[in-house]
Amino acid sequence: MRTTRAYGAQGSEKELTLRTIERRDPRLDDVAVRVTYCGVCHSDLSALHAHAADGDGLLVPGHEFVGEVVAVGDAVTRFAVGDQVAVGNIVDSCGTCAMCRAGQENFCAEFPTLTYGGRDRHDGSTTLGGYSGEYVVRENFVYHRPAHLDPAAVAPLLCAGVTVWEPLRRWAAGPGMTVGVAGLGGSGTSRCGSPRRWVRASSCSPARPERRTTPAPSGPTTSWSPPTTRTSPAPPARSTC
What is the C-alpha separation between 165 and 191, in angstroms, rounded? Predict the structure, then answer.
């Protein structure tokens, strides 16, 4: 097993604290990633509240992160040590159902394994998320990060960004089209920057008029950077979504 530092909550704890956690040694098709930036999603806060109420096990949030490959399994072919990569909300799936074979693992008939709070399909352990110094994940759920993109800005695109990008692509939204965004939460604001270059976007949030009048941010911001004096990989800086 590998060890790394992470922010997590044990049992009924209501706040995240820095602790040491274990990661599996890379399996044949695994990639070990040193996490450099992790997106902060409102669902992380919801998960923390729910976990505190249940009071069971360890929760390490974080489901959208970028980093550097530090180790690969013997069967990995698409990545090498030193590659800059990104990982989203899904880290495994059955791989055999119709949706998985179509590249739609988010609709896996057996439900996909999530980055945290999921169930590992091999040993049954609970997945621990990206608020950590390192993450080990199957090669098929790792993506190359284009070098010219700001890594802090890329992390939220793996959740809020792709959530809205997929339907825009699915319905061939293009220049001059008007699209509706049902609410300007993380997903909505992530789409109000780039789509306006090629579609007209409108919000449908009558209960939150202030969101319609507030300019959408141009991109995520870094909210904190961790201390660097650690003997094990430090938890990443976070970027908001």
Answer: 7
Mean pLDDT by 10 residues, the chain (241 residues): 95 94 97 95 90 89 96 98 96 96 94 96 96 97 94 86 78 80 56 49 48 34 36 51 50
Structure tokens at 66: 């970028």
Q: Give the Cα separation of 47 and 89 in Å (integer).
A: 14
- Residue 81 confidence (pLDDT): 98
Could you give the 3-state DSSP secondary structure of residue 56? Answer: coil
Q: Which CATH number fits domain 2-156+221-240: 3.90.180.10, 2.30.30.240, 3.40.50.300, 1.20.1270.50?
A: 3.90.180.10
Check: CB of residue 235 under 8 Å from CB of residue 65.
no
Q: How far apart are CA 102 and CA 110, in angstroms?
A: 15
From CA 212, how far away is CA 188, in angstroms rounded?
Answer: 11
